[in-house]
Amino acid sequence: MKGHRECVRAVNSKRPVNLDLATIKLPLPAYTSILHRITGVILFVGLAFMFWAFDASLESEQSFNAVKETLQEGAFAKFVLWGLLSALAYHVVAGIKHLFMDAGIGETLEGGQLGAKLTLVISVILIVLAGVWVW
Fold it and tell me: Residues annotated in the binding site for heme, as ranges?
């Protein structure tokens, strides 16, 4: 019964418990890290689309032209392509930031904040350029 008392004491403790995720304030580097993971998942899932397009483009000249036409004229396909390029751009920029941090550059609090801001700014520029290129 000793374990039960410890459990009741832990539940009745006066420690603050914050389960409202909307009120939790994370620092900017935490958000950029979360986005890095999300873009990795998007790229992994997006590989299915890219493998399909690559496989179809290699079947014959007609299938190559069909894939080309879909990517040039299909709004949804362009949006998916732009999304994958955007995820790739952000993931690469954030990965390079992590490589710098692995080398000991930007490990301080100020360096982490600056690295997160640079990651976002450079990524937004690359995402806009990818959008201009796709459309």
Answer: 91
